[in-house]
Write a structure and sequence with these properties.
DNA polymerase, domain 1, four-stranded mixed sheet, single chain, disordered C terminus, mainly alpha, hpI Integrase, Chain A, 331 residues, disordered N terminus, 2 domains
């Protein structure tokens, strides 16, 4: 959703069944705001492509046609796959309600996505980032917050959406229930990840220290919030409300520039770095899968390729005959 554009404008553009499905995902399935907004855009795309055709009259051939048109307009395979997943999910929910004969998107295959290796920083780069003077000597509330956020990112391999939804502790009232929270006494972070799958991940000592320091400074940014979710939030923005994902991205980008890192870093890179470094040290794929909250081990296995790349680089640099040119046998 473009910044500053009211959500209500998007909702009015969607047929009522689509609005109700999004509400179901948000209220009953507790999907993250980022996921809801992405699905909203995908449903809007379907309405636009249908060009007046009733939702119940859309068939499999139309879905294929809409994907082909979107691809011709420059949509990438990953976006098309997510779009198809949103359409399929909507019809899976709405179809039984209106007794639709079949889900028109169910048998349509998503375009094949070329699986690229995730970007990860080296151990030295992560140390340079987290030990950057601009981060370690900044005693302002914002500085303490940033250090705690980025230490926790790398310590526990969180997604950006998981980090911003964290609370200071677990809350369950008639007005609000926590989706994630920290427990510093047990050195754990409780997370509600993709598909509403809960998991518990350890918090490292450096992150615990940074979090304790931030919690001492947090009252400086706290404002009396009427919204319970903001009052409970672990990380706050300048106005005292729960920090926005975009602010986290901007603060990390600025820190990387000051730290002199050659790589453009976004929050997910810290998650990738966590996974890669733990796997390099522990060689325990199942443990990394559980800490990352991956539903399938195949998703986690991609980090073994990163690990192999690291080993290959070490071999090439260290072995005396690794890069030596082989003389042709005819010579």
């Amino acid at each position: 959703m473009p910044a500053g554009e009211p959500q209500a404008q998007h909702e009015r553009s969607l047929p009522l069944p689509m609005q109700e499905w999004l509400t179901h995902l948000e209220k009953n399935r507790r999907y993250a705001d980022l996921t809801i907004n992405a699905y909203r855009r995908d449903l809007l795309a379907l309405v636009t492509l249908a060009d007046g055709r009733a939702l119940e009259s859309i068939e499999q051939q139309h879905i294929r046609q809409y994907l082909a048109v979107s691809h011709a307009r420059g949509q990438q395979p990953r976006s098309l796959a997510r779009m198809l997943a949103a359409w399929r999910g909507f019809y899976a929910w709405w179809g039984p309600i209106i007794k639709l004969a079949a889900n028109p998107a169910k048998e349509v295959r998503a375009p094949k996505i070329k699986r690229s290796l995730p970007k990860a920083l080296s151990v030295d780069q992560m140390q340079a980032l987290l030990d950057a003077p601009t981060l370690t000597v900044d005693d302002s509330p914002e500085g303490q917050r940033d250090r705690a956020m980025f230490e926790l990112f790398y310590s526990s391999g969180l997604r950006l959406s998981e980090l911003v939804q964290l609370d200071q502790h677990y809350i369950n009232t008639a007005q609000y229930q926590s989706k994630g929270w920290i427990d510093l006494e047990q050195a754990q972070v409780h997370v509600l990840g993709k598909g509403q799958k809960p998991r518990i991940v350890p918090i490292g000592q450096q992150a615990i220290v940074a979090l304790r320091n931030w919690l001492k400074s947090r009252p400086s940014l706290n404002r009396q919030q009427r919204d319970p979710k903001d009052e409970a939030a672990l990380f706050l923005g300048q106005r005292g409300a729960r920090i926005h994902p975009r602010v986290v991205q901007q603060r990390l980008s600025a820190l990387c520039v000051k730290a002199g890192l050659p790589t453009r870093v976004h929050p997910h890179v810290l998650r990738h770095s966590f996974a890669s470094h733990v796997l390099q040290s522990a060689q325990d794929l199942r443990a990394v899968q559980e800490m990352l909250g991956h539903a399938s081990i195949s998703t986690t296995q991609i980090y073994t390729k990163l690990d192999f790349q690291h080993l290959s680089a070490v071999y090439d640099a260290a072995h005396p005959r690794a890069n030596r040119k082989v003389r042709d046998a005819k010579d």
